[in-house]
Imidazolonepropionase (Terrilactibacillus tamarindi), 419 residues
Amino acid sequence: MNHILYVKNAAQVVTMKGSKEPRAGQSMKDLGLIEHGSVVVKDGIIAFVGTDQEAMDYLKNDKKEDIKTIDASGKLVTPGLIDPHTHLVYAGSRENELEMRLKGATYIEIHKQGGGILSTMAETRKASEETLFDQSAERLDKFIKHGVTTVEAKSGYGLNVKDELKQLHVAKQLNERHPVDVVSTFMGAHAVPVEFKEDPEGYIDLLIKELLPRVAKDKLAEFCDVFCEDGVFTLEQSERILNAGIEYGLKPKIHADEIEAFGGAELAAKLEAVSADHLLKASDQGIQDMANKKVIATLLPGTAFFLMTTPARARRMIDSGMAVALATDCNPGSSPTESLLLVMNLACLTMGMTPEEVITACTINAAHAIDKADTIGSLEVGKQADLVLFDAKNYQILQYNYGVNLVQTVIKKGQVLVQ
Ligand code: NIG
Ligand code: FE
């Protein structure tokens, strides 16, 4: 059995090396590029990264039969892509809402009429753990085909004790049984369920007093997230829930300023959240506050595209010194896609992010946004061997030849998954 994998002589290797901190502002442009580069993997871990000349020297004492070689000439090699914001585990689909929106209804109107998140909640409550597992595993298969080797996954379609725990168990099972790594976020505060319509404070009590302790005790999530928006959870409620999460060891994330300038960005800064996500309507002050407190902006241009609205001000954020990550927001209502590649195209073409910034946002900055930069997000010796080979002679092609899946080979923990 060959236990050495030799990815040989790529036209370009994007290493993202030396990124212990998230790459903010100007430093998002530095890809740590190697021309004619090679990567050597031993037992699932990166053992060498450098030019092919150096690689041949590095391997000169290894036996030929121990080495499996992948010829990467003319190709681009990057770290496995990371999606730091998804609602992966859900049942059903909501294509009917696209039609409603095309006729003029807004996302929040549909939500307030009991559709939207609440209709997926009903489907998710009805589904068995097996059904949820199977439907979500199919989504992960699509993610891999688009070069994604790690995803974050939020709960928030159960909205009661039993079904929130069910969703989180499914995410845990997926992490254990599917090749893609799944990092869990508890998002019981995704919406107020119908049974608490007249008593939202009662629901928040349930989240804080019953659910959070269970989630923490069973180690079912690393992060806590809240949909902080007019008509969903107020600033004060969001702060209370996220602070309760912090007490139980869950790091804060926040769906902020997606539909209104609601003060979510300012709250993210105040709580020093790991990331603030969406941020379509984030204020100038909010952006400055987040930059000062080193909050990562996780932007979701696919959601803006699918909701037919103006995307976040990525340029202002990066030029203010923020670190930006990108994600699909994969969910049945506002972004039904597993194509992080299309999201990358949209980031470039609708938000003015450069091809370098886009790659940084989907590799090392995305790793930081889920607090996993010590093991993934760059091609450096000692890190997990998650790599993608693209049928592209340079990294710019990924944004130029848009809407096309250029993924040729995906390697996860040294295993070749898609070829
Ligand atoms: O991130 N904004 C809130 N939550 C999701 C949408 C969930 C849904 O519509 O089912 C989002 O866009
Ligand atoms: Fe989301």
About this structure: The chain has 16 helices and 16 strands. Residues 87, 116-117, 120, 227, 255, 258, 303, 329, 331-334 surround N-(iminomethyl)-L-glutamic acid (ligand 1) (CB under 6 Å).
